[in-house]
Amino acid sequence: QVQLVESGGGLVQAGDSLRLSCAASGRTISSYAMGWFRQAPGKAREFVAAISWSGGSRGYLDSVKGRFTVSRDNVKNTVSLQMNSLKLEDTAVYYCAADPRTWNSANYFRENEYDYWGQGTQVTVSS
Known about the structure:
Blueprint: E1 3-7, E2 10-13, E3 18-25, E4 33-39, E5 46-51, E6 58-60, E7 68-73, E8 78-83, E9 92-99, E10 116-117, E11 121-126
Parallel strand pairs: 2-11
Antiparallel strand pairs: 1-3, 3-8, 4-5, 4-9, 5-6, 7-8, 9-10, 9-11
């Protein structure tokens, strides 16, 4: 079993930056693909970003490309999401997720690809 704990959320103004972290425990995630998803009030959860086990492949939601960067540290067993130029529409609860199947280029953006989920961290962007 893998336990995931997100941190780094908070209240910021539009245009600010935040860095979310996801710490894994229970087993190493060095061979896992990792994803970030978010859920805004009244909306379905959506894919934000994903990274392969090596960091060599990454994927992003179109609306965050160029603003968000996903990275990982397999020694520290962590994954991060650097969010720059935040917009009001980025307000959501952000979830970290782990896929033990390394990387699926066709499905990395699908929720059901991921077996383990964190509890989420709230990001609120104000004007």
